[in-house]
Design goal:
The protein is α+β, with helices and mostly antiparallel strands. Helices cover 41% and strands 20% of the residues.
Length: 107
């Protein structure tokens, strides 16, 4: 991966961090060190975030990466956007329905 791609990825992670902060979460970029697997953005407990800032995304591959990197009990998601478009969040349907059910029980 070239420097331009790394820089764009970093910009995307910072933008997603800011999106999370806008909604009241103390999000930070995850730090990659010593080969440890950590989410691209941390600060949403129970969620493993794979962040993608690209025009063309292999969503299945990105979701598989999030699923493979998530720790037990974490919900894997992919936060993704392209230029001049809003952020989207992708998750598997089982996790979606767990969250939806929990949300519905609070109504």
């Amino acid at each position: 991966m070239g420097k331009a791609q790394r820089d764009k990825g970093k910009r995307g992670e910072l933008q997603w961090r800011d999106e999370c902060r806008k909604h009241g979460y103390n999000a930070q970029r995850g730090s990659q060190s010593n080969g440890a697997v950590i989410a691209d953005v941390i600060g949403l407990p129970g969620i493993h975030i794979e962040c993608k800032f690209v025009e063309r995304l292999n969503l299945r591959a990105a979701m598989e990466q999030s699923e493979n990197d998530a720790k037990d009990g974490e919900i894997p998601i992919v936060a993704h956007k392209s230029n001049r478009k809003p952020w989207l969040v992708t998750m598997n349907s089982e996790d979606f329905f767990k969250l939806y059910k929990a949300w519905g029980e609070q109504l």
